[in-house]
Amino acid sequence: MKPDLHAEVNKNSAFLDRELSQLMFNRRVLAQAEDKSIPLLERLRYLCIASSNLDEFFEVRVASLLAAGAADGSLAAHPALVATLSRISNECHLLVAHQYEILNNEVLPELAANGVHLVRHNERNEAQRAWVKEYFDNEVRPLLTPIGLDPAHPFPQVVNKSLNFIVSLTGKDAFGRGTAIAIVKAPRVLPRVIRLPDHLSKNGGISFCLLSSVIHAHISDLFAGREVIGYSQFRVTRDSDLWVDEDEVKNLRQALKGELLGRQFGASVRLEVAMNCPPELSQFLLDQFGLHQSRLYAVNGPVNLVRLNEIMDHVDNPALRFQPFFPGFAQKPGSQDIFSALRKNDILLHHPFQSFQTVIDFIRSAALDPAVVAIKQTIYRTGMNSDLMEALIVAARAGKEVTVIVELKARFDEEANINWADKLEQAGAQVVYGVVGLKTHAKVALVIRREDNKLRYYAHLGTGNYHPTTTKFYTDFGLLTCHAGLAQEVNEVFIHLTSLTKPHRLNHLWLAPFALQNEIIKAIRNEARIARAGRPGRIIVKINALVDESVIRALYAASKDGVKIDLIVRGACTLKPGVPGLSENIKVRSIIGRFLEHSRIYYFRNDLAHDTYLASADWMSRNLFRRIEVAFPILDKALKRRVLAEGLNPYLKDNINAWELEADGHYQRRKARGKQTSFSAQQHLMETLGTPNAHLGE
Questions:
Q1: 500 pLDDT band (50/70/90 cuts)?
Q2: Using CB atoms within 10 A as the burial measure, which of 145, 190, 448, 509 is most buried?
Q3: Domains of the chain
């Protein structure tokens, strides 16, 4: 029986609840952890992903809602907000309980059956207990600093999402005082998952224990002469948004460096404790963190499931993982000069099915090519280690004009981006931090090359980040082109971002916050006009989220006019599909598979013109009005067909990883019926675009 998540939401509303829709995405991820057709360690990974998603949901979304209520004094003055938070709390408690049910009743027992054991204290034999005791004495205890609470030792600062313990004690301390509560912080330098020596694992398997279990087993050793009468692990989740007054600060990078230090101690939004935590201790913690009882989550296991990812680093059993995948190459490395190739044809890249190495080669070639005079690139997320950033540094040191627009406020990547900004500036690059008040989310790069005494532009435009790790796990499209119109407009975008002048009229690119929403709505209305004239109207869109009400209203209107609309929306979607008189021509589906669906594709049939755009932007107000975003057309007819054949049609055919949204906000998993053949879009693309048997020659 499916939970009635939306029962409290106004049924007459034309929109679904955004927060509940986002949480429903987490339910679909959890379903992967339950799917027995998926290798066991991958199921554990999905469980960790769901936990990480929920962490971020609290750090960002719940935190922003609580901050909005606090801004005007108290939540009580905002009954609608209180109702929203209540719905969120109910669903999150159900989700968390379900996570631990899957962990304890399915994943851990099945791992044990496959020789991978997570051994709790009461399950350890004498030899294992002796080893754990020695590990505690030698590796853990020296790093612990128990803090007995009294006026001279107030409740300590607790870092966001860190592992801690609260302990209740009897008797008096060494000074004759009755300090009853102590706090123990788990050292952050220690692994959370500890592998036991192989000779202590039965039947040739692998055994692990958790750091939390090690400390629990020996916590009384920290309080000689006193009795521990109650204890629990706990973790507090905090508001992780960074706030700086961009109109006031003179140096955004320096201001953010200061804010990063304080992020770990933002306002508390959630408290997690062990299920057996004494009520008086959980209440004490709630009081210390200023949290309502509804923010308490008592869990049946470790308070941070994400840490179980560490198990996968130690288990080398191919049968428990997805089969290795090796991407194909749109252009074989070293096969020919990439600039010569682009003068012949545009190159369309579909990651991770095709290697991101082609993009790296593009920037590396530009850095080393004496004919290249300038390189410009936006950076939203790139990670701590990046061949692309190193190539830009090489180019700057070689005397080329290198301009990099670094988004310093890319959430959770601020530190990496600040570090790269420092290195780039030291190398001589011009570093700009985008536009005050707007995040630069566009993914574009430009190479300017002198050829035959003229400057020629080469561009890369993408739907995903220039990040070496995520390009292996996120589905994204990228276009390499030297089309004069497109590439010159990319240069106009860079001039706009660096000079802050109004951009010239763009004939190809749709740029947010100036024109993107208007162009989207114009294209939707054009399909409606075509449908009213009696010709086929068709829209297919693939995005990560759909919550912008103006765009949704335009889609509703187009549906009423007879336009057939298919929306492939991975995450939050507040549009109600299939409602008579409103959206009966709209279908919404979500694909949850091996790779995270991240590409954004807008397709409008437009009387067989087949207008096809790839974009960095989802259809959310923040993308359309509070970010610099770029949607770019695919102009080559053959490449348009490829986008349809790879990025849209397979996903509409998928009956393995597809979930269909119902008008009430629930999702139903689509399955092959009768004589239908089972079909996975991602598996199809792996088989058609990947490199077959690449590992056999290793």
A1: confident
A2: 509
A3: 18-320 (3.30.1840.10), 338-504 (3.30.870.10), 511-689 (3.30.870.10)
